[in-house]
Known about the structure:
The protein is mainly α. It folds into two domains: 2-121, Orthogonal Bundle (Helicase, Ruva Protein, domain 3); 127-206, no CATH class. The chain has helices at 2-11, 20-35, 47-68, 84-87, 101-121, 127-134, 147-154, 160-166, 175-191, and strands spanning 139-142, 197-200, 203-206. It has a three-stranded antiparallel sheet. A hairpin with a 2-residue loop joins strand 2 (197-200) and strand 3.
Amino acid sequence: MSQEVELVSQESVLVSDVPEHLVEVVARLTRGLRESPSVDHRSGVSARFAIAAAEGVAASALRRGARTGEGVAVARVCDVPCVIPTLLGKVEFEMGEEGREAEVVQHLLRVAIAETFRDRLGGLDLSGFTQLFAEGAVVETGELLPADELLDQVGTVPGLSKVLDRLGHGDDASPGEVAAAIEFVLEGLHLTRRIDKESVAGRSVYGV
């Protein structure tokens, strides 16, 4: 996996910052498609798919930055589903999957995020995050929500600094990098069935 992440990082032309954990999600999604019985393996899934996905995620973050006035755009988990419609044209599916293409990719994306979450943050004490929701907090995020607003909703969370360390950020992490880390944790906790989530029109609400 590290070689695939390195390849995508080297070959992609990114218009905004894409944290390495999201590059890994893209690489895992690509591998999942290559191994999926739903995909026509005669056509295959090239490395260009992962590169295009990373570039699309970066573009989504840049659009958010332009629309919300963020100084430095940093990609978050919410930017990945935005590129699925474009990516569908780069994969040949088996005949029996007609009409289910987006569903297949969305499922494999959830698997990729969960696997990356376990790999990157496995064994870490994330009770500071789960306690937020045990106390009744609700956190809304999405492709048009600026980093500062996400950080304001969450506040100070015990254990966040260790999350940032695991994801390759130091004490000087930017607000965008911190928001990306928090959203990654929230989605990972949801996918591992530790918190609830509701998605509506490009928004995700955790804790409902």
